[in-house]
Specification:
Layout: E1 11-14, E2 20-30, E3 35-43, E4 56-60, E5 64-67, E6 71-74
Parallel strand pairs: 1-6
Antiparallel strand pairs: 1-2, 2-3, 3-4, 5-6
């Protein structure tokens, strides 16, 4: 299994339309269960503005379809 820290800065692509959504900036995990709930993505071109959280996309873990070396494919 991949550790949460390995997700940071991976490019996130929507497989429904091939659009690049942005880059992973955080992972929401349920520590008591040891499971990942979602990934948080800073939208393309808005990475610097993402510190406030307004331009972030939260993608449920069930929508993550494939994790590659440099890219995460999601279905939204």
């Amino acid at each position: 299994m991949t550790r949460g820290i390995d997700f940071r800065q991976k490019e996130v692509i929507n497989i429904n339309n091939g659009k690049m959504l942005g880059f992973v900036i955080d992972v929401d995990a349920e520590l008591t269960e040891g499971s990942i709930k979602s990934i948080v993505v800073a939208q393309v071109g808005k990475v610097l503005k993402s510190l406030g959280g307004k331009n972030n996309i939260t993608i449920p873990w069930s929508n993550v379809k494939l994790i590659g070396e440099d890219v995460i494919l999601v279905e939204i």
